[in-house]
Amino acid sequence: MIAFTADNHVGVTSQWSMKERRDDFLKGFREVVDGALASGARSLIIGGDLFNTTTPQGFAVAFVKREIDRLAGFGCTAYGIDGNHDISGGSWLRVCGITPLDDVPAVVSHTPKVTACGIGYRKSDDVLAAINSMADRGVKCDILVLHLALGELNRMGATSDIAGAEVSKSLHEMGVRLVLMGHIHIRQSVVVDGITFAYCGSTEMCSMNEPRDKSFELVDPATMALTRVPIATRKIEHAVIGTEEEFSRFEAGLEKCTDVLQSVFVSSMLVDGVKRLRDLAKARECLMRIQVVHPEGEAKEPAFDRSTGVTGLEQAISLSFAPDSAEAAFIKACIRSPETAAAMAEDIITGKGKEGKEEGK
User: Fold this and answer.
1) What is the DSSP secondary-structure string of 165-195?
2) Which terminus of the chain is more solvent-facing, meaning fewer CB atoms within 10 Å of its CB: N or C?
3) Each residue of 292-326: pLDDT tens digit?
4) What is the largest CA-CA distance in the chain?
5) Tell me, what's the pLDDT at 299?
6) Could you give the 3-state DSSP secondary structure of residue 268?
7) Domain-by-domain residue ranges, the chain?
8) pLDDT per position as a tens digit, 87-101
9) Which residues contact 231 (CB under 8 A, 6 or more apart)?
10) Are strands 77-80 and 99-100 parallel, antiparallel or unpaired?
11) Which CATH architecture has domain 2-231?
12) Any idea what the Cα angle at residue 146 is, between residues 140 and 148, rounded to 5°?
């Protein structure tokens, strides 16, 4: 088997003012290594943004190197490309013992024989030129690894870099059967002109509007079929606090638990709401991300405060949920129309809401 991961963003030092998130990103990559070894994979392919920055700190580099050495100890070789976050001409990959993929085919499976090439992050025109050049020069490979936004997919809102239809002719000339991709943090795939283009998604939540279900992929070298392998991530619980009664209920139900991240939407109308929540989080030793939202009719764009993260209700919701989701509608109702919130909450719990249906599959 061939394991594939991308967008690990190792080296995050804190997120939402929580130093614990540093270890969450490390854990995500470690789970990929554990899963690759458990599957008996002989190769691990990394599709860019292994690191969160072009100048990763020592702890991040040392951690990745230890994990890659652990793979090597069981006969699993790591290959990869740069992403937009960690572009370095493959330097950090080499430091960690990872072989950078380029236009020289690397054998990533011997039985059956499967080869892979890669193009690190660059401007879309340069990617197109590189693919066409490889085809013109007669480069042959089974798998091509890219880090960009594909026009036929891209459900995370980034500007598309290229379309699969633009490069399918060249890919067929190269013999490419599978394109493994990083950059978009959601697992998705599409077949264009007989070629599968696939994202594995990120291994941790870089922003709250990402899917919470994280994973990496196993590739069957005989068929190029993809199998999703789940990654366990920190549980996130959401709460909406618009009144003193809601604050009291939240306080009474909040237990000490460092394994759960509390994502709290608090009305700006609640006196000292942010301070009281911070004090509560400290007293209960809980991880808490606090976002201030403003009731209908209140100012929509107050001064931006990075400690609370958002400027208004719509912005807060967009950072955590799809705009048409049942959860987004519920939060709006809690702030704007509390009398309808109870019924909506019941729909979400019972699976009648749009997101509830998906999560209940």
Assistant:
1) HHHHHHHHHHT--EEEEESSSS-EEEEETTE
2) C
3) 887 654 444 443 333 344 445 555 555 555 556 66
4) 70
5) 45
6) coil
7) 2-231, 235-359
8) 999 999 999 999 999
9) 28, 31, 32, 35, 203, 214, 215, 216
10) parallel
11) 4-Layer Sandwich (3.60)
12) 145
